[in-house]
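pinned: reference chain
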Amino acid sequence: MQVIEKLRDLALNRKLAAVSAIMVVFTVAASSYAVLELNQNGSSGQGLIVYSADAYVQESNTMLNGFHNTTGYPVAPAIGAGSYSAARSIGQGAPADIFISVAQGALDRSYLLSRYSGWAVAFASDQLVLAYSSATISNAPAKSVIAMFSQANASNSSTAYYAAFSNLTSGAVKVGIANPSDDPAGLRGWLALEIAGYLYDRGNVGYFVNATLRNNASVSSLNAALLVEPLEAGYIQFLFIYKSAAIANGLGFISLPASINQGEPGMSSFYNKFTYTLPTGTVRGSPIFLYATVLANSSRSPESYAFLGYLVNNTNILSGFGLSPLQPCILFSSVQDPPEIAALVSEGHLAYGGPL
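pinned: its structure tokens
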């Protein structure tokens, strides 16, 4: 209960700081982008509007800034939210031209409704890590967990990994796992625990999941970004988050085996064995890709496709954020390719990866 009360206090402090933070964002954005005022309906007269998975707003803004400097097209700062939350907002009418998601499922018609395009381009990959802060290191049980994972990573011993995950889920430490229905980082955190049970407890996918729930070892929030401050304050000791986000927030992190971190494109069929059920249906595991799509019925289609072209031609920029650029990028499509996409395929910038 004390942890929950402290988290509520932190949430209140974040809300009080939000007004000044918003002013700072728009002040900085005005110097970096051709940002246009929004009308009463929330749409811009000319600027490109991008919704981005919240863990990748910095990367999205970097690409938007480069696109604006190269082409002169006006753009607005990316709007960040959990991929599923963002998709619901877009489907419900929020003005948007491009959607950058870290979950293929969020690109489905069931979320985007009339804005569903039927295709998306994977342009970079990431991986899941267990982040920690300086406050974590001063916590004796948490310090022991770090040491156990270090030993397991060095020895690649199943017994050592079993011990590490057992201590992580024992309730002696608190682990941040975002709400899977809003943020795919949370879904992938639970999938990581499923895979760990499968690998280290003789195929028992529920072993570490059930231990986490039974021991009240997890703390949730709308998205992983909201759990960074509690992690830094020591109210939780670990956080399932993407490697790029851990780096961006200056956090320490435990690297997980490729079989668990969901960051290896070549292990797609293995990840696909594991599932998590959301209110909207069952989601299968998959490599952590960052996807971009031009939303259907966009009033700025030429600029949107121009940005996509810039993105797939400049993915190398993203390696500075801890991401692994994909070259060529991967096209997932369940519709006839728009001419702009067909051109990128013929030029070798995109390779087909299957249906969306």
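why pinned: The first helix runs from residue 2 to 32. Residues 2 and 338 are 54 Å apart (CA to CA).
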